[in-house]
Design the sequence.
């Protein structure tokens, strides 16, 4: 490999350490996701940021706080400098720092966050915190993230059983509130978090208990 090719590879793989300060309850949620999926916190946080930047739903939410214009794929959002700066939303709440690493090449995650920060009229670090909070509240991310890890850890038979359990719960739910895959997994982990190391192990244990009762 030539020197030029080596430099190009370094640039493409370059990541920047980002340490946003987020609400304590949000940090706890991310650590919980990290625990149940057996994934490093930095990787979970990076996935949240990537997902949020690709989500029209998240971008539409963030656009209500844009003080300057921002373009997202084929959509251009107008800014309004009369809007309250988001930094005022993070006053008088318990916050803690969380670490992640984001790709920093042209068009990569951190590059887009810098443009987002300009639109929000704040620092990239604060924009990252706001993006994380908006993204984690998007239930589609949590469902997809947990489902992806379930499919990696469970065999097809057990995954099918788990989906059948969900169908049963939703058919017989008197509250008319759909229970998602992630909701069920979070419940299982709350019950079994001290006895299992991974999300797959906990779900398998739970399914075994259900089978034994039949």
Sequence:
């Amino acid at each position: 490999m030539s020197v030029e090719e080596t430099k190009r590879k370094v640039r493409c793989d370059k990541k920047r350490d980002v340490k946003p300060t987020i609400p304590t309850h949000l940090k706890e949620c991310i650590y919980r996701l990290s625990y149940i999926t057996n994934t490093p916190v930095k990787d979970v946080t990076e996935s949240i940021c990537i997902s949020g930047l690709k989500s029209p739903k998240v971008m539409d939410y963030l656009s209500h706080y844009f003080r300057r214009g921002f373009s997202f794929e084929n959509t251009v959002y107008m800014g309004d400098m009369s809007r309250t700066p988001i930094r005022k939303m993070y006053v008088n709440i318990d916050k803690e720092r969380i670490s992640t690493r984001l790709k920093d090449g042209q068009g990569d995650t951190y590059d887009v966050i810098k443009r987002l920060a300009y639109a929000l009229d704040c620092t990239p670090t604060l924009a990252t915190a706001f993006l994380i909070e908006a993204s984690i509240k998007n239930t589609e991310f949590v469902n997809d993230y947990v489902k992806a890890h379930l499919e990696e850890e469970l065999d097809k038979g057990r995954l099918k059983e788990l989906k059948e359990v969900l169908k049963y719960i939703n058919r017989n739910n008197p509250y008319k509130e759909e229970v998602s895959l992630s909701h069920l997994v979070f419940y299982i982990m709350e019950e079994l978090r001290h006895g299992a190391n991974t999300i797959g192990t906990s779900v398998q244990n739970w399914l075994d208990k259900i089978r034994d009762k039949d």
Remarks:
- Residues 58 and 134 are 6 Å apart (CA to CA).
- The radius of gyration is 20 Å.
- The mean pLDDT is 81.
